[in-house]
Amino acid sequence: MNAPRTIAEYLRQLREALRGADPALIQDALYDAEEHLRAELAENPQRSEAEMLAHVVGSYGAPDEVADIYRDQEIKIQRALRPPPPPKRRSALGRFFGVAADARTYGALFYMLLSLATGIFYFTWAVTGISLSASLSILIIGLPFIVLFFGSVRVLSLMEGRIVETMLGMRMPRRPVYPAPPMGLMKRIGRMFTDLHTWTTICYMWLMLPLGIVYFTLAVTLLSVSVAFIASPLALAIDRSRFGGLFTDGQPLINWGMGFHEVGWVDVTLLCMVGIVLLFATLHLARSLGIMHGHIAKVMLVPRDGD
């Protein structure tokens, strides 16, 4: 591999050396390398890019060396951050109830509850920003506003990525996309408009509202029903006359498909068992939705090669 003579060439070689790695890792490595190289260039204005790179490569490393370092560090970091895996269970019952021992299950469940608030915020921010950008574009103030809005979208993308990685365990960028070199306002706006990553992030912010509603509704409804069923024996023990169901003359009735009859201990025991099964099924659903949403966030929030 030829020695790079410009920062752009160094970054291209680094990207090539990291080909096949996680896109989030590539973004982090490119950001760190570009930040370091531009800082070196700013501190030594008397040197050309080629001279600076020849000096820096000896200390910072050639692109292929830096790529190997990042791959090794990623393995160590993931091992340190990854929660201990739940013990493997061979039986179907063990796998069904073993979901409670998986830490990612609770992160996904909490993300489902949080997603309604974040979805409303993201959707409102995106719709308001696009609307104001379009309406103000005919005025002088519209151009700086568009730049600020697109910049805020990238900040929110990074913030959402940290939430997704923390709660869902999906590797997301820990560094933003490095800002483009200084250029005119019109070129900067044109670059933002043609950046696919900007539009996929905005689409993700729009998508989060319906997804947030679905996630929140599923989590709250299934958890509420599960807890209510599990607590039914306690409710019957406290006050049978106030147990939920269809009431006739103050007595609770239940129907298992064979006609209504007064609720007894056999009925609430069955309800409790159904509630326990439903609760663990909810945990499985939460974990599956967490995995699915992690992949959605990965595709829409992380730039790919060529973006």
Mean pLDDT: 82
Which sequence of strands runs across the widest sheet? 1-2-3
Order of helices and strands, N to C? HHHHHHHHHHEEEH
| Secondary-structure class | mainly alpha
Notes on the structure:
This protein has 307 residues and is mostly helical. Helix content is 71%, strand content 4%. It is built from eleven helices and three strands, in the order ααααααααααβββα. Strands 1-2-3 form a three-stranded antiparallel sheet, with no helix packed on it. A hairpin with a 2-residue loop joins β1 and β2. α1 packs antiparallel against α2, α6 (103-136) packs across α11 and α7 packs across α8.
Essential attributes:
307 residues; mainly alpha; 3-stranded antiparallel β-sheet; 4% strand
Describe the protein's topology:
Blueprint: H1 7-17, H2 23-43, H3 49-59, H4 63-81, H5 92-97, H6 103-136, H7 142-168, H8 185-193, H9 196-230, H10 232-238, E1 246-248, E2 251-255, E3 260-262, H11 265-301
Antiparallel strand pairs: 1-2, 2-3
Helix pairs in contact: 1-2, 1-4, 6-7, 6-9, 6-11, 7-8, 7-11, 9-11
Brief description of this entry?
The protein has helices at residues 7-17, 23-43, 49-59, 63-81, 92-97, 103-136, 142-168, 185-193, 196-230, 232-238, 265-301; strands at 246-248, 251-255, 260-262. By secondary structure, the chain is mainly alpha-helical. The model is unreliable at 243-248 (pLDDT under 50).
